Amino acid sequence: MKPKPPVTTIRAKKAVEKTAPRRRVQPKVVVEAVPEAPPLHIAMASPEIAPFAKTGGLGDVLGSLPQALERLGVKVTLIMPAYRSVLRGGFELEDTGIRLSIPVSTRREEAALLKSKTGSAIPVYFIKADRYFDREYPYSTPDGDYLDNAERFVLFSRAVLEVLKLDPPSILQAHDWQSALSVVFLKAQPHLYPELSPTKTVFTVHNLGFQGLFWHLDWHLLNLDWSLFTPSQLEFYSRINFLKGGLIFSDVITTVSPSYAEEIKTAEQGFGLHGIFRERTPNLVGILNGADYDVWNPDTDKFIARKFSPDKLAGKKSCKAELQRIFKMPENPDVPVIGMVSRLTPQKGFDLLEKAVEQLLSRDLQFVLLGTGDKQYQEFFSKVSEKFSDRTGVRIDFDEALSHKIIAGADMLLMPSRYEPSGLTQIYSLKYGTVPVVRATGGLKDTIEEFDSKTGKGNGFVFSPYEVQPLLDTVDRALAAFGDKKAWAVLMQNAMSANFSWDRSAQTYLELYKKLTAK
Ligand code: ADP
Ligand code: GLC
User: Fold this and answer.
1) Which residue, of 17, 51, 211, 361, is most buried by count of CB atoms within 10 Å of its CB?
2) Whether 279 and 378 share a structural domain
3) Which domain holds residue 448?
4) Do 166 and 192 fall into the same domain?
5) Is residue 117 part of a domain?
6) Quick one: 211 and 345 in the same domain?
7) pLDDT tens digit string along 3-48?
8) Kind of pairing, strands 200-205 and 235-236?
9) If you measure from the C-alpha of residue 205 to the centroid of ligand 2, how many angstroms do you get, rounded to a whole number?
10) How many domains does the chain have?
11) What residues does ligand 2 touch, defined as CB less than 6 Å away?
């Protein structure tokens, strides 16, 4: 992967030679090489890229934003760890033959560089260091985080920069805390990366709830000067905060919805970092995530019982019936099905739902839940499904196919999130005419608008206070609308006509990249 010589174009230029007067001058063609501006080259470092690894929306974003950028003529390079899911996932992997020697503390760790492809020609590089990444899960087992996560993602972030040296990009965009140190190392130790001195940096926050916090005794792993371990740099209440490093050292910070970009400046939602977001306001942008409609489209979805579209809705009925069968609930088209596909964490509102669920299930409805996460919620909701087995189905699993079946077959999707940087499932469900019932926060606020049966406007149902009664009242409004066939038909059409394709968001990223590289 040697850097290519600059592309040149041949431009014909008319030149007039000085000749004797009165003689007619013949124009002569002189060939002059004019360097053509190289395409914008964005290298993205991320701990997840679908389909190679996905634990949530981050994987989806990295699986589709690069392709949307590629369609806009941007050159994209992707870099992620070679987890077991990559090594054994049946992907076509090429060994580049390149071996990296990465400083971690006082040692050097060896890593191999594997390569695959996504989109039409987007290279994906994998850092293969089996001691760190050949494990069952990316970050944690059901019993908790891997104890060497600091070391694992120090190695990954250093390795990212070694890969960039091979073909220096215009911009490094690092995603979430696992990649944040690549920005820090580049900016704090430019002498180690002279090839990358023109490279600008973007740091993207997908979820402030995960910051990569480690005790100070891990500092030696980073090979950074102790002078950076201060509250104005990487220190956070005596611990090392990887994400904070990304926030401080990047040229631009992005997050995944305009509302979340505002919310993180408040003490309530800033997870202790709101001061930094406030200070960096001129360089903080919220760009809403998009949906990959090649994957999430009821007209082409390979996982669902029968395909459907806004003008042919019969398939949706079959999808609902299949869902009721899967969860062994009565196959009744008139009973509304409320679905959830989610990580089972307090972020997603499961503490609220825990309090509300019995009252919720006293209504005439069916409830299905697919998710993995906190043991406490796995156990609680499994018990709920035993107790209310005639109207509840709970599956504790990570199951791509079932997630599509729920989003297609349910009538409503519930997302009572405490906070939600963007949220993708509500965007997906709109396309399937599955009406979102959400809490007004972050990206949910930016995508879902309360339905008004008088004007026929709106695409879902929204509540604000994080409390049981507003949640139940909002479900009741949704149930009332479901009972009114005409209103529901309008609502479904509104939902299905929503367009949150990546193309629009990718255009906004492109404008940002152009501004940044013009500086
Ligand atoms: P987050 O990234 O916070 O988990 P998002 O709504 O952005 O939330 O994205 C979640 C993604 O993960 C969606 O693609 C959703 O379908 C998927 N997902 C979540 N839980 C599961 C599960 N148990 N099985 C399959 N897919 C899941
Ligand atoms: C995070 C957020 C989610 C967002 C996703 C992708 O995990 O919780 O709201 O959609 O990242 O950006």
Assistant:
1) 211
2) no
3) 314-500
4) yes
5) yes
6) no
7) 333 333 333 333 333 333 444 555 555 556 656 666 899 999 999 9
8) unpaired
9) 9
10) 2
11) 56-58, 61, 206-207, 256, 289, 420-424, 443
